[in-house]
Amino acid sequence: MRTWSAPDVPSLSVRGPQVRLHDTATGEKQATQPEGPARLYVCGITPYDATHMGHAATYLAFDLLNRAWRNAGHEVVYVQNVTDVDDPLLERADKVNIDWQALAERETQLFREDMEALRVLPPQHYIGAVESIPLVIDLIQRLQEQGQIYTVETDLYFRVRSDKRFGSVSGLDTATMTALFGARGGDPDRPGKEDPLDCVVWRGERPGEPSWPSPFGPGRPGWHIECAGIAQQHLGLAFDVQGGGSDLVFPHHEMSAGEVQVAWPGETFAKLYAHAGMVAYDGEKMSKSLGNLVFVSALRLSDVDPMGIRLALLQHHYRDDWEWTDQGLWDAVDRADRWRLGLARAGGAPAAPVVEGVLAALADDLDAPRAVELVDAWVEATLAGDLAEESAPGAVRRLLDAALGLAL
Q1: pLDDT tens-digit profile of 259-318?
Q2: pLDDT at residue 120 above 80?
Q3: Residue 321: enclosing H or E segment and its boundaries?
Q4: Which residues contact 362 (CB under 8 A, 6 or more apart)?
Q5: What is the pLDDT of residues 43-78, one digit of tens each?
Q6: How far is residue 261's CA from residue 255's CA, in Å, rounded to a whole number?
Q7: Domains of the chain listed by start with CATH number
Q8: Where are the alpha helices (DSSP H) in 242-295?
Q9: Phi and psi (nearest 5°) for 276?
Q10: How far apart, in whole angstroms, are the C-alpha atoms of residue 147 and residue 162?
């Protein structure tokens, strides 16, 4: 699948510190220690509607990680999927009377345009669920060899508890897992299942739904095994970071990990799990079911400065749950304009402290709010007349671009 265009990113004259991230599985910050290129997988969209601020916050968070790794001297291999066939997409296409493939391509293209506008670095591998079907089939066959697949009618299920580490990503008890599984696309009450938490890996053909041939009969992939197959193929085992929104901790990341860890006994899916918080609007988490969405594309088409949108997201720590407000957006637009004033000066406050401080803040669990505070202080000192260095604005401009993704 085609990804989006990469922005030009300047190189910095100083190297950033090694990156530490909060690991969901342990509840602690851990140093990322890439062996060779840093390897990152971030779960992508199901393209049945436009990109809202909750999506944007997640992809911007892992864009900060991508940039922090690069500024620390690492190459990065970044993989992202697109769930371009799934129940929500098919239901939406049927509701609005459009071909499901046309809907998926339209919304995926809109997502590309939103990511380009926000200057999010693209993945090297951008893989759709449909094109991942051969990978899914191979992974199911490996799980069959381990004796951990069974059939309910025409569907194939994975025995989740065959992974002895099941539950270690989320740390949840069975009752909580079961409730979340039902709320997030699972089928804990289906008759014939061996365990309510077992997840479907191959959905047998249904009338009126797309399907593909396989050794198990016609059908299509389950959700979790799609990402498991893509990640393993393009990043290998024990890759550095599995990322996504906090609503993916369970069941999605827990079950993707289990499928790979059972298929390759004794191996580890990902070294570290990092998750972005949820963004609310009008007092509720942004969700398509509630309709309380603020779309990136709608703001862009209303001539809102994309760098103001990005800065509005950077004002919040990636792991926090927070609420989007119009006032927060306009404050960010004003802040971007004030930073431009500081950068337009012929000289500025010393650059070295803000460069080192911003890189250190981002290396410490992607602390963008702290980085924003440091840039604010530099701008105010510069506008107050502390013009210590002729080269300072240029150095800070390069920093904002390379580290925070802001082209001002």
Answers
A1: 999 999 999 999 999 999 999 998 878 777 677 889 999 999 999 999 999 999 999 999
A2: yes
A3: none
A4: 16, 19, 64, 67, 68, 71, 368, 371, 403, 404
A5: 999 999 888 999 999 999 999 999 999 999 999 999
A6: 10
A7: 20-285 (3.40.50.620), 310-316+326-404 (1.20.120.640)
A8: 254-263
A9: -90, 145
A10: 9
Could you tell me the two tokens for 322?
């927070």
339 DSSP 8-state letter? H
Q: How many Cα atoms within 13 Å fall on the side-chain side of residue 14?
A: 18
| Residue among 79, 78, 123, 86 at smallest CA distance from 104 | 86
What's phi and psi for 249, nearest 5 deg? Answer: -55, -50
The percent of residues above 70 in pLDDT, for the chain, comes to: 100
CA distance 235 to 227: 11
The CA-based angle 40-42-46, given to 5 degrees, is: 155
Closest CA to 328 of 342, 301, 300, 309: 309
Burial of 105 (0-12, 13-18, 19+ CB in 10 A): middle
Query: Following CA atoms 389, 391, 397, 403 in sequence, which dihedral angle do they give, to the nearest 10 degrees?
Result: -80
| Residue 307, both tokens | 């760098």
Beta bridge partners of 270: 239
Environment class of 323 (CB within 10 Å of its CB; exposed 0-12, middle 13-18, buried 19+)? middle
Specify the DSSP class assigned to residue 249: I
The amino acid occupying position 285 is K
Residue 109: Cβ within 10 Å count:
13
Cβ atoms 31, 44 nearer than 8 A: no
Q: Which pTM value belongs to this model?
A: 0.96
